[in-house]
Design goal:
Two copies of one chain form a homodimer. By secondary structure, the first copy, chain A, is of the alpha/beta class. Chain A contains 13 helices and eleven strands.
């Protein structure tokens, strides 16, 4: 067991991360702290900027819990270059806190690529994990949720990587979403075993030999249909689906706008339908849920959207706390080891 | 120029293809004929069943234009096996008519895989085409359409195949959709040139060297945003996106249903919003547009959804006619040859 696990949970938050930093990041982190209290909050970033926000908002916060980082990785910086050049950036400093066991978790709404790279390279991977992964949880027609792994942590995956995503995703679904025995589907172009590209075919063989709750091949439509709890695929495919899914609301808005503009009656109709639509679409707006963990790194790493609201940051911190309480990193390590011994 | 091009256009329709065959297939084909007249219609399938429908519907149709096929490939038959075992199926017979230059086009709403395989193996490929491709045309927030190639004709594509999809898709967009200089995007996980899997990176190099109207890498969100007219990707990715897109309406319906069931007021609200929604969603229901061509085979091959309506079949036949009138197969052959000489 990690040294820090015997101590009180410590969560570091990137105060400089996100389009509305430092305000949203700090306020969200403090709201989470005020709700839970039973953890130590560390704010990482430019000390003067952090203190300015704390003063403006009349918040008392222990100065020793502010860890100064003189640089900021911008949203448009190239991740690998930024990591090398900005050694004193909040993302590098935050990930290093976890590496040095000065924190259990690091939470950031900053540059996603830099956060993934820093977490992987600085915190390191959980023993036995080939590639860390990031999932996207989408609503389904059944009313439950389906989480797709990987949605962009890596591309050109090997079958073993997809298998690891399933193991890690299963633990996360069980511990965090409370799904007792999460079902797993392998994303493919058809249900039949003969279908698919080389990667899918080879991955299928791995799954068939395992005792994971594997439901077989699933198709693109099965994600929103809610056929399974977890869908695994290469990060190239997953990332494209995620961004495609994110763009659906934009299309619907445009369609409704055009319809409204076509006649006065239609304008009235759309006006009346708007509230209903909004209510219906709100759980498709997954941004409110907060960030997502990078699973497979040796520490808790939560990555949020650049546009994260205070609520999103708060939820990210609370999620980090929950992952700590449930000892998720250790559980992933144990499970990966367990499957290594079997396969 | 092909022998048949000097003659009147002949379009063969699979009377046995689709969930509502032979009725929808026959009625749709005859409606198209009644609208255009300037082509010869051939119905392929079980002669007695075809004649029964014609009699029931009081339609006069020249018996010599019914080409008998004693077998039917079912919607669930395995394509390659079915092609071997059912040599006298309507799909094999129809594709053979094109091969033997007894027809210019073959239209079917039957087993998609069998139709793709029969078209490719029997009609053969246009010289220079490595792999035929099938596209899916989706509505965009801009009000125009974006066609994604390939959506499932093949997987594990090579860069050259994606390049061919772009050439063929450009001709189709220009000739059929009337887009003078269609823009092409390469589907990727980011816009930067360094992004992507090995296939995307190698394909990017091919595009950069060409004089196609290439807009660079595009992301999953760019499809529905309408950033480009054509998006190219491997058929594994495209097929998953297409099926994902098809499932969106199901999710929306389920969400509205749940919302309506949550209270009486909500039920009234959804009741009022329904008509608006339907009107707005209707152009997302691409089924009404009819089938899609398998581009790259040496003849016109139009493949429709199993659930094709009479209107969809009619549109498929009219599309085949338009492709003939615009000499599309020859134009693809010329363009592929042109690029072969350059690359």
């Amino acid at each position: 067991m990690n040294e820090v696990n015997t101590h009180k949970c410590k969560i570091a938050v990137d105060a400089m991360g996100g389009d509305y930093a430092p305000l949203n990041a700090i306020m969200g982190a403090i709201e989470a702290f005020n709700e839970k209290k039973d953890f130590e909050l560390i704010l990482v970033g430019k000390k003067d900027e952090i203190k300015k926000v704390l003063t403006e908002k009349n918040l008392s916060f222990p100065e020793e819990n502010i860890v100064h980082a003189s640089e900021v990785i911008g949203m448009k910086d190239t991740p690998t270059t930024a990591l090398k050049q900005k050694k004193d950036s909040s993302i590098v400093v935050g990930a290093t806190l976890v590496k040095e066991k000065k924190a259990h978790a690091f939470v950031s709404a900053g540059n996603t690529g830099a956060m993934m790279a820093a977490s992987t390279l600085i915190m390191g991977r959980i023993p036995g994990v080939g590639r860390p992964t990031i999932g996207a949880t989408l609503p389904t027609a059944k009313g439950n949720f389906c989480t797709v792994y990987d949605v962009g942590a890596s591309v050109d995956s090997k079958p073993q990587h997809l298998f690891e995503y399933a193991i890690m995703g299963s633990i996360y679904a069980k511990e965090i979403f409370g799904i007792e025995n999460p079902s797993i589907g392998l994303l493919n172009v058809g249900e039949e075993e003969s279908k698919g590209n080389k990667l899918a075919q080879a991955t299928l063989e791995l799954f068939k030999k395992s005792d994971l709750n594997f439901a077989g091949n699933v198709e693109g439509r099965d994600i929103l249909a809610g056929t399974v709890d977890i869908v695994v695929c290469d990060g190239f495919v997953g990332n494209i689906i995620l961004k495609f899914a994110e763009s659906i609301i934009g299309l619907l808005k445009a369609k409704f706008k055009n319809y409204a503009e076509s006649s006065f009656i239609n304008k009235l109709k759309v006006g009346m339908a708007k509230g209903t639509l909004k209510a219906v679409l709100q759980d498709m707006d997954y941004q409110k849920y907060g960030g997502v963990p990078l699973l497979g790194v040796n520490g808790i790493s939560i990555i949020g959207h650049g546009s994260s609201s205070t609520l999103a940051i708060k939820n990210m911190v609370l999620r980090a706390k929950e992952m700590f309480d449930k000892n998720l990193i250790q559980k992933i390590e144990d499970s990966i080891k367990n499957y290594e011994n079997k396969v």
